[in-house]
Design a protein that fits this description.
Blueprint: E1 2-7, E2 12-19, E3 23-31, H1 33-36, H2 44-66, E4 75-81, H3 85-102, E5 106-110, H4 111-120, E6 130-135, E7 140-147, E8 150-156, H5 162-172, H6 179-187, H7 212-223, H8 236-262, E9 266-270, H9 277-290, E10 293-296, H10 299-302, H11 307-322, H12 325-337, H13 341-344
Parallel strand pairs: 1-4, 4-5, 6-9, 9-10
Antiparallel strand pairs: 1-2, 2-3, 6-7, 7-8
The protein binds 5'-O-[(R)-(carboxyoxy)(hydroxy)phosphoryl]adenosine (KG4) and zinc ion (ZN).
Length: about 350
């Protein structure tokens, strides 16, 4: 089965062609980072307008690079939730128009669930049941997965997402947007033990996250409050390295707890923050220590892309073809009652 994926939930206009769920024939991404950088974050109106400008050429590029024409596309999978409404609207409208003119089936995709499917791309098959962990600019979510299509939430962030915390701390340190890559680059020159920032673990068994205290601790340090010297040019690298270390320790400890609580021996990780090299090596060390199988998305499939949507689309489409009319009604009701993992309890 060959699927065309489309993703426009935030500031990447992305299109991809995926064969048989895991083989990526093309993955084309037009990033808007340069347009949003002067504002230190994504400006929704600019994002929507840029998607309009780039969506057609991105789809064309994905088809050309994959060497397939519209007649070879069996399904179009488009991210339709959650995300910036004006940005999602462009991808969904384009996908509907293509599906109508090519007479191709169309399926809507949950962006968070797609990040987990992204972990399976060009990787060995995932072992289930598994703990799933999406760490991105918009979400920090732990789930227990029976499969890529069935998951139960375990915990999530009570305030900022992990990537958002990276972005905001980068702003405090006057490092360029997006903050994750610039903090990790700066951290390479610094000492992760220079400042002992808090590891916000919450209650002993908690699988939730809260990064606002950590962010505030960095702000106090930078502003020279609480008796610290203000961060000058010399110690920006130390602050970056110390913040990154606190963040990674926290994320890894929550993974360890989730594995213990669920008894799963498989861990699946996706989302933009999973590009972080320190985090990747800490998760590898955790999986070796706990003897669990780690499936972590390849860096190019961690940040927003359409291949993850195409892969998930193929799986959802196969399931839809198999289920009974009664199941269909139930799942349709569930889909209408929820646009998010947390309120729905399953994808
Ligand atoms: O998954 P993604 O592309 O978009 C959302 O769904 O939000 O994630 C983007 C986030 C940004 O906050 C960015 O700063 C973060 O991923 N990120 C990183 C790194 N690369 C990207 N965070 C930490 N270290 C990185 N190397
Ligand atoms: Zn994302």
């Amino acid at each position: 089965m060959i699927v065309l994926g489309i993703e426009t939930s935030c500031d990447e206009t992305a299109s991809a062609v995926v064969r048989d769920e895991r083989e990526v024939l093309s993955s084309c991404i037009h990033s808007q980072v340069q347009r949003h950088a002067p504002f230190g974050g994504v400006v929704p109106e600019i994002a929507g307008r840029m998607h309009v400008e780039k969506i057609t050429e991105t789809v064309d590029a994905a088809l050309t690079e994959a060497g397939v024409g519209p007649d070879r596309i069996d399904l179009i999978a488009v991210v339709n939730r959650p995300g910036l409404i004006g940005a999602l609207f462009i991808g969904v409208t384009a996908a509907k128009a293509l599906a109508f003119s090519w007479r191709t089936p169309l399926i809507g995709i949950d962006h968070i669930q797609a990040h987990l499917a992204g972990a399976a791309l060009e990787n060995p098959p995932i072992a289930f049941p598994a703990v799933g962990f999406v760490i991105s600019g918009g979400h920090t979510i732990l789930v227990k997965m029976e499969s890529l299509l069935h998951a139960v939430p375990l915990g999530g962030t009570m305030d900022d997402a992990a990537g958002e915390a990276f972005d905001k701390v980068a702003q405090l340190l006057s490092l360029p947007y997006p903050g994750g890559p610039s903090i990790s680059k700066e951290a390479e020159k610094g000492d992760p033990a220079a400042i002992r920032f808090p590891r916000p673990l919450l209650a002993p068994q908690s699988l939730d996250f809260s990064f606002s205290g950590l962010k505030t601790a960095v702000r106090y340090h930078v502003q020279g409050q609480q008796g610290n010297a203000p961060a000058g040019a010399g110690n920006v690298a130390d602050v970056a390295a110390s913040f990154q270390a606190a963040m990674v320790d926290t994320l890894v400890e929550k993974c360890r707890r989730a594995l213990r609580v669920t008894g799963c021996s498989s861990l699946v990780v996706g989302g933009g923050v999973a590009v972080n090299r320190l985090l990747r090596s800490a998760l590898t060390a955790l999986s070796e220590k706990e003897q669990v199988q780690l499936t972590i998305a390849r860096p190019d499939f961690c940040t927003d892309n359409a291949a993850m949507a195409a892969s998930l689309g193929a799986q959802l489409f196969q399931r839809q073809k198999q289920r009974s009319p009664a199941e269909e009604t139930l799942l349709t009701l569930e889909a209408h009652s929820s646009s998010s993992l947390f309120t729905g309890g399953r994808f």
